[in-house]
């Protein structure tokens, strides 16, 4: 019988049980907010919050377990933030479709993902992406995380017309605690203390409770809400109405691009890419997210995929699927201890995102700054990820401008066939999404 270490190949990835466990705890703490946020967003689309909480957790558990045992990668899976807002506010509230129909679209997208993955179409497309764009994905995701962290901690807030963002109230107790937590985390990392990010999050949360900034929950243990009102309630038949096609296509493209960009960006940071800049056996983590996306709407929630917050665990040394398995276990516990796990305030987990961002900008030096056909697509990818607050928009822009600039420069032969397919998908997103 294989041991845990041999099954997850700890020796091959130069990791250990302790590293992987700490990595899993770190990843979970930075993404536990989804237990509250996803149900809150989807409630606006008519999905009951209680059952949705259970669906969110179960979808994350399923995805993380498949990622751990099948793909053996340290990437946590949970419902995506951008897709849940798209379903709730655009598909349901703006276009007037039912949430059951929206879930049917997610299910169809998951089936298509699974088929494309099995036939290695998704991996073929991913491997067609040039190194400069892969580097841009990693850098863009890192800065995107940083921007989220700055906003969550209150260091950066919404501004006014002409100045969209501004410095937050640095005298606010939550902001001061965030600054302390960040400095503590950086100091511990400088001293090479293992688990520095977890220590920083826990210390900040503890102080926040002690100073009355974060209230203690009224209870620590609770039974999971009944999932039956949304379980297997998806409407697949309405998905095949031609008028609904733009919705299905948009969900498909958004999920596809988010997954590819996240997997490549995280793998680059974890040093899991090969000498050609590709993730070996990428179809395995892709199939994990495809299966999770297929199961999620059956449970009653939206598109799932690899979470960029997995970078927190990777920074703590997570390199194998055991990290994802730990995340799955903690999500499972959250079914009964949700009040305890969700007590971590945004100004505590936000500091982890800022720290991670500083480590993920390293690949920028691998972009060819002296070649405009490489630099401009990479630059647009990075800045539009951040300033549109949408990873898919940034990626789409890069995937579209790269082959166009190469062709304009008379270097079209340098563009793999797969890049032209990706460019077509990018065009489709821009054509259909604004009409939503």
Task: Write up this protein.
- This protein is mainly alpha-helical and 436 residues long.
- It has helices at residues 4-7, 17-31, 34-43, 49-71, 81-94, 99-118, 121-128, 131-153, 173-190, 196-210, 245-269, 283-299, 310-315, 321-341, 346-360, 372-387, 391-408, 417-432, and strands at residues 77-79, 156-160, 163-167, 304-306.
- A two-stranded antiparallel ribbon has the order 1-4. Strands 2-3 form a two-stranded antiparallel sheet.
- Helix 6 packs across helix 11 (245-269) and helix 9 crosses helix 15.
- The longest helix has 25 residues, at 245-269.
- It is globular and about 65 Å long.
- The mean pLDDT is 88.
List the SSEs and their pairings.
Elements: H1 4-7, H2 17-31, H3 34-43, H4 49-71, E1 77-79, H5 81-94, H6 99-118, H7 121-128, H8 131-153, E2 156-160, E3 163-167, H9 173-190, H10 196-210, H11 245-269, H12 283-299, E4 304-306, H13 310-315, H14 321-341, H15 346-360, H16 372-387, H17 391-408, H18 417-432
Antiparallel strand pairs: 1-4, 2-3
Helix pairs in contact: 2-14, 3-4, 3-5, 4-12, 4-14, 5-11, 6-11, 6-12, 7-18, 8-11, 8-15, 8-16, 8-17, 9-10, 9-15, 10-15, 11-17, 11-18, 16-17, 17-18
Helix tally equals: 18
Structural class: mainly alpha
Number of strands: 4
The helix/strand order is HHHHEHHHHEEHHHHEHHHHHH
Question: Which band does the percent of strand residues land in?
Answer: under 5%
Strand adjacency order, main sheet: 1-4
Mean pLDDT: 88
* Biggest sheet layout: 2 strands, antiparallel
End-to-end Cα distance: 53 Å
Label the overall shape.
globular
Low-pLDDT stretches are: none
Give the helix proportion (percent range).
55-70%
Rg from Cα: 21 Å
